UniProtKB/TrEMBL annotation:
It comes from the Bacteria. Keywords: Membrane, Transmembrane, Transmembrane helix. This is Uncharacterized protein. The chain crosses the membrane at residues 21-45, 51-77. Residues 103-157 are annotated as: Disordered.
Length: 157
């Protein structure tokens, strides 16, 4: 199993690297701090140190979970939604939904009082109504007796 670590790389986002620091936080800090270190290489240490510390805090803040998603994920999804609304508008059609069956032709509703009416085949007869069935006496419950262990009395007619 030499490739087990490579197969599980996608599961390492929430893996703890240090106390209160996950792999995702570490990547966010590195991605924000590294450009700051390169850009501030010529600055004095008293200016450079607060910039690098601020960049590290910004990288950490961008990767903190808020409502189940990191802040950068919220921003990316919000940007994606705004782009989709600009491209397609606010109306959602069935073609936009994943997993729906696409029909070849669109169906339009017909007006109730329009020119198209329901046509019934005159050869087809309507089914006769089903007669109501009365309940037989055998299905009616027997009255309760005072003594359940006593022998049943024959019904008097």
């Amino acid at each position: 199993m030499p490739y087990r670590m490579l197969e599980e790389l996608h599961n390492r986002r929430k893996e703890k690297v240090a106390v209160l620091l996950t792999f995702e936080h570490l990547v966010g800090i590195i991605l924000v701090v590294l450009p700051c270190v390169v850009v501030s290489a010529g600055l004095p240490l008293l200016v450079r140190a607060p910039l690098i510390i601020g960049a590290a805090l910004l990288g950490l803040a961008l990767t903190l979970d808020v409502g189940g998603m990191a802040i950068y994920e919220h921003l990316l999804w919000q940007l994606r939604g705004q782009l989709r609304m600009r491209m397609h508008g606010r109306i959602i059609t069935p073609e936009m939904l994943t997993g729906t069956v696409q029909s070849e032709r669109r169906e339009r509703p017909l007006a109730v009082d329009g020119p198209v009416q329901i046509v019934r085949d005159p050869r087809q007869r309507r089914r006769p109504p089903v007669p109501k069935v009365s309940t037989p006496d055998a299905l009616t419950p027997a009255p309760l007796r005072d003594d359940p262990l006593a022998e049943p009395q024959p019904a008097a007619d």
